[in-house]
Amino acid sequence: MNHLRRTTRRQTTSDVLLWAVLTILAAATGPDPTTEPGAFLLITGGRVLALAAAVLLGRPWPWAAAALITLVAPWDLGVGFATMDLSWWPGLGVTKIVPITSLTPAIIWYAYLAGRRVEETRLPLAAFLGVAAAGSGLVLASGGRPEDWIGVGTALVATYAAPYLLGVLRRRLGFQRARAQAAAEAQARLRERTRIAHDMHDSLGHDLALIAVRAAGLELSPGLTPAQVTAAGELREAAAEATERLRQIVGLLRDQGQSAPLDPVGEGVAELVERARASGMDVTLHQTGEPAPLAHRVVQEGLTNAAKHAPGAPVTVTAGPRRVSVANGAARGRAAAISGGTGLAALRERVRLAGGTLTAGPHGHGYELAVELPRAGEADPRPVGGPVPAAAPRSEHDQ
Predict the structure, then answer these.
(1) Which of 92, 241, 260, 378 has its CB surrounded by the most CB atoms within 10 Å?
(2) Could you tell me which residues are beta bridge partners of residue 94?
C-alpha cells in the first residue's frame, strides 16, 4: 500500500483533477443518462471506477494504468486519427489509421511514463501483449476485416509502442546526463585534490625543510648543553618525519594522470633565496635579467633538496631567462629526510610541458639541478608526438 500513497499534496491534487477530467470524457462518450439511466450507471459507472483505479495505480505502475484504461475506453474502429483509401490493393478499402477514443491521450501519457519510470521490461511487455490480444479480439468480433487489422496495428504502434520507446529514450538520456555530471564532479574533486597536494608540497614541504636546517644548525652550535643539543636533534628529526608524512599524504592526494600546474607561487626568486638565508642556509644568488617563468619552482625544489640532503653545504643559485640552476657542495651535516621522489618528478613534468629540459645529478663534490628553457616564441625542440625522454636515475636528492 505504500506504493499507492501520495507523498505530497500536489500529487494528490493533480491525480484527483486527472481522474475528474477522465471521468468527464468517459461520461461524454457513454450512454445518455436521461434516456438510458440503467446503461449509464452500468457502463459509465464502471468506467469511472476503472479510471479511478487506473489513476491510483498510475504513479507506481503506469503500464497497469495504460492497460486498464485501454480495457474501458469506448473503442470504435470506424473513428481514427486519419483515413486512407487502400482500395487499390485487392481486398482492402477505406481504412482508419490509428483508431482513437476520448481516452487515447491518457493511454499515451501512461505508456510514456511506463518507459520513463520503469526499468524492467517484462511487465510493460506483458501489458502490451494483453492490449494486443484485446485489440485482436475486437477485430475478430467486428468481422476480421483487413482494414480493422491495419487500424489496430497502427493504434498499437502510435498509442503504446512509440510513447513507451520515447519514455525509454528519455530515461536513458537522463541516466547518461547524471553519469556525465557525476564524472565532471569527480574530475573537479580530483583537480582540487591535486591542487592541494601541490600547494602542500611546494609551500609546506619547503618550510619544513628549512625548519630542519635551522634545527641542524642549532644542533651543531657550540656552547649548548647536552640537553639542548638533544632537544635540537629531536626537533630536526621531528621536522624530517613531518616532511615524510607530508610526502605520503601528497602521494594519496595527487592525481597521477594530471599534469602539474604551471603557475608559480607569489614571490620572486630573490625573496625565496633571502628566506632560505634567514633559515640558516649559505646561499649565493646570481641573477641575470628576468628569470624564466619556472625559475621560482626550480629554485624552490633545489633549495629544498639541498636543505634535506646536504645540510650546511653552500648553495649557488643561478637564475636567467633561459637557464636556472641550483648547485650545492658536499654536505656538512646529517641528512634531514629520506628520499621520496615526488618533487623532482613533478618538476620534470612542468619543465616538459614548458618545452624545456631538466638535468639533475652529481656535480663536483655535490649535486646540481639545472633547467634549460626555450626562448619566448621559440618552437618546442621535441618532435611532435615523439617519445618523452627517459627520466634520469634518481639520487638521494630526488624528493
Answers:
(1) 260
(2) 85
